[in-house]
């Protein structure tokens, strides 16, 4: 599955990493999540969701896979 | 030996009707000191905007949605007055908290980066050391009055570290701050307040002079960065730097102490949560978020800059509006069973630090201070109780929190 952390919305609260460190990583130097768009195994869906709903800025979204490579 | 905090002999009772309780609402009311939340929730259910006649009269926004709306409309809700009644702490407006519009934007841009999460990570090792030092002073005693001896020290230490003033000034800055609070309480007018400010103004000015003399290169502390900063293409004046430092201290000390105090009071009363913290330290950030939601702390004011209508209420230019940010966490439209503590809540979106352009500039610092306090305390004192025969002394006022918290623990001195 794919997810995205919007760098414009991320405020560096670090809640994603605190709630689901198996999926999310905050850059130690800057304190922000700089993962952008990333791929993670489907088994981690629950953790992805936990970090997503827990983000105070609603900066995280799950990307729906395009049905084909068209466009 | 510790004694139970004195209970007031005369408990002034709340007015009998809801209408009267709204009309008489003020953070200073004796009947609201112990538990403003229960009374506030009743008002929150009654109406989104109400009017109190106290302190010259002001509006109160009661719900999450309306507080967020006001926070995101700074052109309507000016920050030029932040308290009710409106005090002017300095001769100039407080930087950046009291500024509006473009002026606010440029200062906020200059200052915002000085407290970003990367800076917080940078200073965390020093902050952890200071946290440990503060706890070790009391750890072997087996008891403490937690607020004055422990909690209030953390934000002072953090301030001295982040501003690059140096931890050796701890006693000095805390003495100045205590003296200032007493002087403000006795002040009759804004002139008295400004006279009371002078010793701290001098303290900050001296700290800036020392930093300038010792050099700022490569340093990430606030004073170094301010000395190197530009605003409107010119360096900051000494007065502006003193203003910003002073403002930051006023905004940080009591609020952070209050946050720490409500979190530790809850922990002291819930041994099962102490166990959770010890067994699962990785849950500490979520535990802290939930506890600061559950215990409303901060409220600030705004001034209506242009007539505005909302929910059928017209607020006129010049009216004062109280925004009790913390109370937004009690809104059942946003949080299921808001009075319950639930560390597994799916959303941590809250207004504890407000939102919009005036969102708390030090929120990342405050959270880190709190996290380190919880971690390092439980590393040394994993089990503690509110001292039998005492009870936490709660207050509402401008920053809701705990004024006195007697804690007791086993020092294991038998070993």
Question: Would you write up a description of this structure?
Answer:
- The complex is a heterodimer of chains A (71) and B (415).
- Chain A is of the alpha+beta class and 71 residues long.
- Chain A has one domain (2-63): 2-Layer Sandwich (Alpha-Beta Plaits).
- In chain A, 21% of the residues lie in helices and 15% in strands.
- The model of chain A has no long low-confidence stretch (mean pLDDT 89).
- Chain B is an alpha+beta fold.
- Helices cover 47% and strands 11% of the residues of chain B.
- Chain B contains 14 helices and 14 strands.
- Chain B has helices at residues 18-23, 36-46, 64-71, 101-112, 117-139, 146-151, 153-162, 170-186, 190-214, 222-228, 238-269, 271-279, 284-294, 363-380; strands at residues 49-52, 58-61, 77-78, 143-145, 230-231, 234-235, 300-304, 308-310, 313-315, 320-323, 385-386, 393-395, 401-404, 406-408.
- Chain B has a five-stranded mixed sheet with strand order 1-2-10-7-3. A three-stranded antiparallel sheet of chain B has the order 4-14-11. A two-stranded antiparallel ribbon of chain B has the order 5-6.
- In chain B, α8 runs antiparallel to α9, α9 packs across α11 and α11 (238-269) crosses α14 (363-380).
- The longest helix of chain B is centred in the middle third of the chain and has 32 residues, at 238-269.
- Chain B is globular and about 60 Å long.
- At the A-B interface, α1 and α2 of A face α5 and α13 of B.
């Amino acid at each position: 599955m794919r997810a995205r952390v919007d760098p414009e919305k991320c405020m560096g609260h670090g809640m994603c990493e605190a709630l689901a460190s198996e999926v999310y990583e905050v850059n130690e130097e800057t304190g922000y999540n700089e993962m952008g768009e990333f791929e993670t195994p489907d088994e981690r869906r629950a953790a992805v969701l936990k970090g997503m709903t827990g983000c105070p800025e609603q900066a995280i979204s799950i990307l729906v896979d395009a049905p084909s490579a068209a466009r | 030996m510790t004694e139970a905090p004195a209970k007031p002999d005369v408990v002034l009772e709340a007015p009998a009707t809801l209408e009267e309780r709204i009309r008489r609402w003020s953070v200073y009311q004796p009947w609201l000191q112990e538990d403003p939340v229960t009374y506030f929730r009743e008002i929150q259910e009654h109406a989104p905007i109400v009017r109190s006649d106290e302190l010259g009269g002001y509006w109160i926004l009661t719900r999450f949605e309306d507080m967020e709306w006001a926070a995101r409309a700074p052109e309507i809700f000016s920050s030029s007055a932040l308290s009710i009644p409106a005090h002017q702490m300095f001769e100039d407006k407080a930087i950046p908290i009291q500024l509006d519009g473009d002026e606010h934007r440029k200062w906020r841009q200059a200052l915002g980066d000085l407290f970003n999460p990367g800076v917080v990570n940078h200073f965390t090792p020093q902050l952890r050391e200071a946290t440990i030092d503060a706890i070790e002073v009391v750890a072997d005693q087996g008891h403490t009055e937690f607020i004055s001896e422990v909690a209030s020290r953390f934000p002072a230490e953090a301030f001295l570290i982040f501003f690059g003033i140096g931890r050796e000034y701890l006693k000095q800055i805390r003495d100045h701050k205590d003296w200032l609070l007493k002087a403000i309480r006795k002040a009759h007018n804004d002139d008295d307040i400004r006279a009371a400010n002078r010793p701290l103004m001098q303290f900050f000015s001296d700290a800036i002079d020392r930093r300038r003399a010792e050099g700022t290169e490569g340093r990430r502390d606030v004073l170094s960065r301010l000395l190197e900063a530009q605003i409107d293409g010119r360096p900051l004046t000494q007065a502006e730097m003193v203003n910003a430092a002073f403002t930051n201290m006023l905004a940080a000390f009591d609020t952070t102490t209050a946050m720490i105090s409500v979190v530790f009071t809850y922990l002291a009363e819930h041994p099962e949560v102490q166990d959770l913290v010890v067994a699962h330290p990785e849950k500490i950030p979520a535990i802290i978020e939930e506890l600061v939601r559950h215990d409303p702390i901060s409220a600030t004011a705004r001034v209506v800059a242009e007539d505005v209508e909302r929910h059928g209420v017209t607020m006129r230019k010049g009216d004062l509006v109280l925004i009790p940010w913390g109370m937004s966490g009690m809104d059942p439209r946003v949080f299921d069973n808001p009075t319950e503590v639930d560390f597994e809540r799916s959303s941590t979106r809250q207004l504890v630090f407000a939102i919009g352009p005036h969102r708390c500039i030090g929120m990342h610092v405050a959270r880190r201070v709190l996290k380190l306090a919880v971690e390092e305390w439980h590393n040394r004192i994993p089990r503690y109780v509110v001292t039998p025969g005492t009870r936490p002394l709660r207050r509402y006022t401008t920053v809701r929190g705990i004024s006195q918290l007697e804690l007791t623990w086993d020092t294991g001195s038998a070993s």
